[in-house]
Amino acid sequence: MDPVVVHQIAGAALVAFALLLLARALGWIHGGWPVYVLPVSLLLLGLFLVLDPIVFHGGTFGAEGTQHQIQGAVLIVVAAVELGRVKQRLSHRAWGALLPIAVGAVGVMFMLHSQHGGGDMLLQITQHRILGATLILTALVLAIDNLGLARGNWAAVGWPLLVLAVSLQLFLYVEGGAPAAHKGSLPVAPVERGGHEGH
């Protein structure tokens, strides 16, 4: 599958998660289920990243695919921790620092992200570095919120807004140039230009 489409799928899903997180922070949704939005979002995104090279790229995607799987594994572990916090089984304040650390680590990985070699390399590198920087900023604001260091609710609202910015970056991702060929993708038959002059 075209990597741009994969980014758009992830971006569209993350938009929905980000809007739910923002609605929860603003108190627009009520009941017991909103507290599960974050761990479920992390779990689904983590599974998506782990399965990305297998499902969308024929089982391999080089260094880029390995990075995706590492990021996904980190998010799955953090999802379990966040579920433990929701269930109040992990109540120590230090557990609240794990998610910001993980988000920051994923951001650093995007800053150093390997490229698959197709399209406009400079454009891909620039987009991944902007994405990484946004994730690092998200991690900082999230840490301030989780550790109770903010006055008012600006941090509680701020980090879901930054997640929304991340999701939009993924959804609007482009590569430019000729599309890259990936293992497992269907070959494209050459187009023959036929016909005769005068027709």
Short description:
By secondary structure, the protein is mainly alpha-helical. The chain has helices spanning 3-25, 37-56, 62-86, 98-111, 121-146, 154-171. The model is unreliable at 179-191 and 195-199 (pLDDT under 50).
What structural keywords apply?
199 residues
Structure report:
It is a single chain. The protein is mainly α. The protein is 63% helix and 0% strand. It has six helices and no strands. Helix 1 (3-25) runs antiparallel to helix 6 and helix 3 packs antiparallel against helix 4 (98-111). The chain is globular. It starts with a helix and ends in a 28-residue tail after the last helix.
Mean pLDDT across all amino acids: 84
Shape summary: globular
Spans of 5+ residues with little confidence (pLDDT < 50)?
179-191, 195-199
N-to-C SSE string, H for helix and E for strand? HHHHHH
Strand content: under 5%
Q: Helix tally?
A: 6
Q: Bin the helical content.
A: 55-70%
Main structural class: mainly alpha
Give a short account of the largest sheet.
Answer: none
Extended strand count: 0
- What is the distance, rounded to the nearest whole angstrom, between the alpha carbons of the first and last residues? 38 Å
**Radius of gyration of CA atoms, rounded to a whole number:** 20 Å
